[in-house]
Amino acid sequence: MADLMRPPRKDNPMSERESDFSIMDHGSIVVLTPMNGPAKDRLDEIIEEIEAQGGDVQRWSRGVVIEPRFVADFVNNLEGEGFVVA
Predict the structure, then answer these.
(1) In what order do the strands lie in the sheet with 30-34?
(2) Burial of 33 (C-beta count, 10 Å sphere; 0-12/13-18/19+)
(3) How far, in Å, are 28, 36, 75 from residue 70 at the CA level?
(4) Is 71 helix (H, G, I), strand (E, B) or coil?
(5) pLDDT in tens, 5-31
(6) CB 21 within 8 A of CB 40
């Protein structure tokens, strides 16, 4: 349980090998899955923002589906916030 509560990478340089988000490209869809508590919290915030603007979010297991055309911007924003996406 303690592993799920660690802060994003920028605050935790000792565990650089672990990613905050897993990304799986299935061609027509990409699935982004949070791998720890801070990543899940951030993804929940993003989903709330999208839904508040009338957007649709497709959940897939613990993650979300992203159209391939939006993946680069999504990943760049997360990495800019200090998260590791792999």
Answers:
(1) 21-25, 30-34, 63-66, 59-60
(2) middle
(3) 12, 22, 9
(4) helix
(5) 444 445 555 445 589 999 999 889 999
(6) no
Integer Cα distance of 21 and 18 in angstroms: 9
Task: Work out the angle at residue 71's Cα, subtended by the Cα atoms of residues 8 and 37, and round it to the nearest 5 degrees.
Answer: 25
Single out the residue of 18, 31, 33, 36 nearest to residue 71, CA to CA: 31
Rg of the chain in Å (alpha carbons)? 13
For residues 66 and 72, is the Cβ–Cβ distance under 8 A?
no
The residue-averaged pLDDT of 48-67 equals 92
